[in-house]
Amino acid sequence: METITAASGTTSLTWLLIALPLAGALILLGTGRVTNKWGHLLGVATIAGSFGVAVALWLNLLSKPSEDRAVRQFLFTWLDLGRFKVDVALQLDQLSMAFVLLITGVGLLIHIYAVGYMKGDDGRRRFFGYLNLFVAAMLLLVLADSYALLYIGWEGVGLASYLLIGYYQTRDTAGPAAKKAFVVNRVGDIGMSVAIMLMFAAFGTVTFQGVFEAAPGASSAMVTGIGLMLLLAACGKSAQFPLQSWLLDAMEGPTPVSALIHAATMVTAGVYLIARSNPIFDLAPTAQMAVIIVGLITLLAGGIIASAKDDIKKALAGSTMSAIGYMMLAVGLGPTGYVFAIAFLLAHGFFKAGLFLGAGSVMHGMNDQVNMRRFGGLRSVMAITTATFGLGYLAIIGIPPLAGYFTKDLIIESAMARNPIIGGLAVIGAGLTAFYMSRIFFMTFIGKKRWTEDVHPHESPWSMTVPMLVLAIGSVASGYLLMRDNTLEKWLEPVTGFVEPEGSLAPAVVTGISLAAVAVGIVAAILLYLRRDVPQVAPEKVSFLVLAARKDLFGDAFNEAVFMRPGQWLTRSLVWVDNKVIDGAVNGVAASLGGLSARARRIQTGYTRSYSLVMLSGALLVLVLLAIVGR
Amino acid sequence: MMGLPAATQGLFPVPQLEYQNLAPVLIVLVAALLGVLVEAFLPRTARFRAQLVVTFGGLLIALAALFFAGNTDGVIAEGAIAWDGPARFLQGLILVLSFVAFLLFTDRKIDPGRDAFAPRVSAVPGSAEEQSLTEKLVQQTEVYPLALFSVSGMLLFPAANDLLMMFVALEVLSLPLYLLAGMARRRRLLSQEAALKYFLLGAYSSAFFLFGSAMIYGYANSLRFSEIAAATSSQSASEGLLLVGIGLISVGLLFKIGAAPFHEWTPDVYQGAPTVITAFMAATTKVAAFGALVRIFYVAFGPVREQWLPLISVISALTMLVGVIFALTQREMKRMLAYSSIAHAGFLLTGVVALSQKGVGAILFYLVAYGFATIGAFGIVTLVRDGAGEASDLSAWAGLGKRSPGVAALFSLFLLSMAGIPLTAGFPAKFAVFSAASASGASWLVIVGVIASAIAGFFYVRVIVLMFFTDPQDDTTTVAIPSLATAVSLAVCAGVTIVLGVLPQIGLEVADRASLFIR
A single GO molecular function, which one (chain A) (predicted)? Predict the structure, then answer.
């Protein structure tokens, strides 16, 4: 394990990373209409400041030898009552640094984009306040030095996500979508809080350092339990099976939110959690296997759902689920996978944010429509959007030499090295990705125009296109830059460890297989969506698989059957037990307390003479007690 | 013997007084006397402003004097007063709490053109004289000097180092309060009844205290705490005198903090007194009285702890349970808060039972949390009104969250703090006293305390549910717009409650550092 030193010099600025956006959020949400005019600029400025600090910190870390990079900045002691001590401290190391750069960098671009996108929206100041709040909470999440503090950031991003999904308060669908995200995330959070309680019970501490040092001494059942609970938490936040259903509805939020929170950053928090907890998972093979299975199911399910959606944002959301499934799969592989998971996560941050911003740009030009069956041929009017979206599309499906090729391919390789079945399923996922992404691209930008009559598509203003261009550059180059000379492996190795995957198949063969799968996916999409006309109304008579995919693979029905109905049955029976048995006791206690209270009130007559009599009896009682105790 | 050698020389001994350390008390006394002069010589129209200057100026100067008085521990004023951490901490706390509470006194906006006090206290309630005074918008400003006198007594009470000084402080703090309780502008009969009850029972309890002091003098031949302590550890004879003395003194002090079974005056007086006065005395009297109680039990009776520890433990448990159980069925907001403050006295007594320096630190912190939440809660009560003044019945608070979400949220904050919910000051406070008590082996008391907290949670949360999730029954309830002073006062209370909830360690450290008694 690497050593962690106290923050000093440049690294003592770490707290500023969080403080700046937090101050922005407080000002924007606290001042009311006064800041309406320039509030959004303040929002952008705080993130820009944070990004500046992040870059300075990064350069500072780069200048140190790799095993001395981790620093801990102690802020204050929250509570110290002997055995119960909670410190608030930040930990900046290679893993959190990577996330900080992603969050502030992509966050800054999306803030700039939102200036143009939200122009004319009455609540723009509120919107930027929420966004700043989100960035602050997300930074707290990745900079915390303990599970307790991480939990606060974890809840903070949940809150910001909830507020932003429900941002369009006047829409009927926004409220329920926000509620759904909230409820599903609560299920995950139970895992988080139970994990923290288990750690406190087993190790007496919840700091990363303390837990990781003590973990090898704990029983394997305890470690596995903690691992599974952390996995449950990760599933909620990262929309993994079986808690995936909220992400598709979360697309009700404004598009910059979908790009920042529900594609690039927050939904990757689960991946961060597991990568951060690597010393625990490395001790718990069962929990690791569970992570792999969850990742595989989600990456396939997400791909199938994305293939049938006509709503461009929902199709992209399915794609996000699938991509995070890949990351989960990779972190489940242990030291051979952590680095690749983070590499794919960072690259994904670029191209998925870029794709969402592209979708937002399309919606901006098309009167906020999202139905791809009424798009088509948009490349003729939206050149920049088409180009940036196209690069993102090529990147995500893994065309060399774009970002997806360098990162996703490595995940498939190490999956292959672990087990050909796992690897094979990952390859099928790659084919699916190629299919649904081609479908989105063809239906939106190529083919015949199927526009509704009232739209006049146009290219978006520069404040929107510039972030898209920057992200497109990232989609092209980030993979190469991260993986060239094993840069990221060397960077992350002190935190997550790294073992070269050794499989029976040569890497070139694996690459060949997955590229073949990608080619099949593209060809299928060409045959279905370019050679044939796309109907303007979704066909009714479709295969069962398409029907299932349209209904999110019956995710809601699944939830209803597996969780809601048994849950309702359980609550009903619990209510029965509660009414008959517990309430009997509780009501009995309450009634007797109430009765006692009511009867006792009679002592409180209001007469001074009776009060003084009670006092006198009290004094006698005191003396009697003293006399009994005294010798 | 006290100061006799000089008298034998035929001269009256000139006591040596450390004016620098006594300055806070003296400044408040001088301000009170100035206030009396203002009442006597200034025309009625000029008095209000003058009183504000004298009162708030006096408190600020006293605070500054306290700040610069230095913190070298020692026994001063010929041994009558202790100058140590708890004394300084509590004096500062009393001054700040008084300042915040007095801000509420000044409000003439809630009840337009009037304040909370009767135009002439001597006027017969409902008489023609009162009617005409009310119509002429006559206002009295005598509350300010009275309250200042009371504050000076409170400052002395926790610093008193002998029984005589303690008794004097007790009377100085109590007498003005008896008067103040009877000065309500509305519901005057209730108010006057409260004042008379408070006076009679207060005098009764003072008699217990005095009688107990006489017993102790008989036992130890001294009134000085350190000498009483010395006597208890050396002597073995006349144990009976000591026990009776401890018992009777306890009765006097337990009455002041409102511990069961000496608590019955509390709801009646809290309800009858003008609400702003209730806010003031509920917070500051408890601070001062707990300071005195802890000092006397730790310093004077410390060596014989096994004699009184069971007694105080039983009283603590009884007080917690009585407070929360009676609060369950209250229909009146002020009475409910009164029972809640009784329960808090019980929680605080668990810190006394801890009998450790940690316990003292915990009590000091608890008093801060309790004081500000109490002033804040009663301050909110003054805002919620119906046609006849303050809307006292709980039903009038239904649906308040819909009409005035800010006020309802603020009130919820204070209630949550009293209930001890995390991220408010009440949580670390309760946690600290309970963990101190449990560290000293009083586990059964902590269990009782946790049960009482659970019951208490019910009636606090019930009010929150009432405000936010119940539809209003009628529309006669209104929420008054407070004056700037009231708003500032409420903001300070809310600020302290949140800051000490989010960053409790700061307060706990200060309290811990101030927790060593001089002996």
Answer: NADH dehydrogenase (ubiquinone) activity
Are A540 and A609 within one domain? no
CB contact under 8 A, B505 and A631: no
Query: Is residue B284 included in any domain, yes or no?
Result: yes
Q: Do A630 and B239 touch (CB under 8 A)?
A: yes
**Domain termination residue (choose one: A550, A572, A590):** A550
Global ipTM: 0.87
Q: Is residue A362 part of a domain?
A: yes
Question: Do the beta carbons of residue A522 and residue A437 sit within 8 Å?
Answer: no
Distance, CA of A61 to CA of A54 (rounded, Å): 10
Number of domains making up chain B: 1
User: Is residue B341 in some structural domain?
Assistant: yes
Distance CA B280, CA B270 (A): 10
Please determine, for residue A217, whether its predicted confidence score (pLDDT) is greater than 80: yes
The answer to whether B329 contacts A631, with C-beta atoms less than 8 Å apart, is no
Q: Are residues A593 and A504 located together in one domain of the fold?
A: no
Structure tokens at A24: 């922005």
Asked whether residue A433 falls in the same domain as residue A546, the answer is yes
* A627 contacts in chain B (CB < 8 Å): 243
> What are the pLDDT digits (tens) for B9-45?
567 778 888 899 999 999 999 999 999 999 999 998 8
Place of tokens 């009293």: B418
Q: What pLDDT does residue A267 have? A: 87
> Of the candidates A110, A566, A47, A56, which has an alpha carbon nearest to the alpha carbon of residue A352?
A110
From B197, B201, B435, residue closest to A81, measured CB to CB: B435
Q: Name the pLDDT band for B7 (thresholds 50, 70, 90).
A: very low
Burial of A405 (0-12, 13-18, 19+ CB in 10 A): buried
- Does residue A566 sit in the same domain as residue A542? no
Strand order in the sheet with B389-390: B389-390, B384-386, B478-479
A549 CB-contact burial (10 Å; exposed 0-12 / middle 13-18 / buried 19+): buried
Q: Rounded to the nearest 5°, which phi and psi values hold at A15?
A: -60, -30
Centre a 10 Å sphere on the Cβ of residue A490 and count the other Cβ atoms it contains: 13
CB pairs under 8 A between A and B: 104
Domain annotation covers residue A108: no
Q: Are residues A466 and A532 in the same domain?
A: yes
- CA dist., res. A280 & res. A234, Å (int): 14
Total number of domains in chain A? 2
- Give the pLDDT mean for A191-204: 88
Residue A581 has pLDDT above 70, yes or no: no
Q: Are residues A355 and A463 in the same domain?
A: yes
Same domain flag for A494 and A367: yes
Chain A closest-CA separation from residue B506 CA (Å): 8
Inter-chain residue contact A629 with B311, CB threshold 8 Å: yes
Give the model's pLDDT for residue A540. 72
For helices B85-105 and B44-68, give the axis angle rounded to 10 degrees: 160
User: Chain A: which residues have CB within 8 Å of chain B?
Assistant: 76-82, 84, 593-594, 596-598, 600-601, 603-604, 606, 608, 611-612, 614-615, 617-619, 621-623, 625-627, 629-631
Q: Is the pLDDT of residue B318 over 90?
A: yes
Domain hosting A617: range is 560-629
Q: For residues A600 and B70, what is the distance between their CA atoms, to the nearest angstrom?
A: 50
According to the 3-state scheme, what is the secondary structure of A506-571? CHHHHHHHHHHHHHHHHHHHHHHHHCCCCCCCCCCCCCHHHHHHHCHHHHHHHHHHHHHHHHHHHH
CA distances from B210 to B43, B166, B203 (A): 41, 10, 10
pLDDT computed for residue B280 by the predictor: 96
A434 and A507 co-located in one domain: yes
Measured CA to CA, the distance from residue A79 to residue B500 in angstroms comes to 10
Which of B204, B301, B311, B502 to probe by mutation at the A interface, max A CB count within 10 Å?
A: B311
Residue for token pair 């740009």: A361
